[in-house]
């Protein structure tokens, strides 16, 4: 993996980790988002979407390619065969 890409992905993971520490909404139920959803729960909905996108980017750009290759002649077992 390119060093610049590794640095960007590391910063993204660190940023997502820091955003998970939702200390500013701990004692709040107001305002209600969409008229019924407490702000803390709405924040975590958005955070979950961001975490999913982050994991998708990590799989796309940082997954070790050698784990996906097999040796010639090696039979793979599993539900896909």
At a glance:
The chain has 2 helices and 2 strands, in the order H-E-E-H. It is mostly helical and 81 residues long.
Task: Explain what the structure shows.
- With 81 residues, the protein is mostly helical.
- It has a domain at 33-61.
- It has two helices and two strands.
- It has helices at 3-20, 39-62, and strands spanning 32-33, 37-38.
- A two-stranded antiparallel sheet has the order 1-2.
- Helix 1 (3-20) runs antiparallel to helix 2 (39-62).
- The longest helix is centred in the middle third of the chain and has 24 residues, at 39-62.
- The two termini are 30 Å apart.
- The mean pLDDT is 85.
The share of residues in helices is 40-55%
Number of helices: 2
Strand order of the largest sheet: 1-2
User: SSE order, as H and E?
Assistant: HEEH
Give average pLDDT, whole number.
85
Q: What amount of the residues lies in strands?
A: under 5%
First and last CA, distance: 30 Å
Low confidence ranges? none
Biggest sheet record:
2 strands, antiparallel
Gross morphology:
elongated
Number of strands: 2
Q: Rg, please?
A: 20 Å
Structural class: mainly alpha
Keywords summarizing the entry:
2 helices; 2 strands
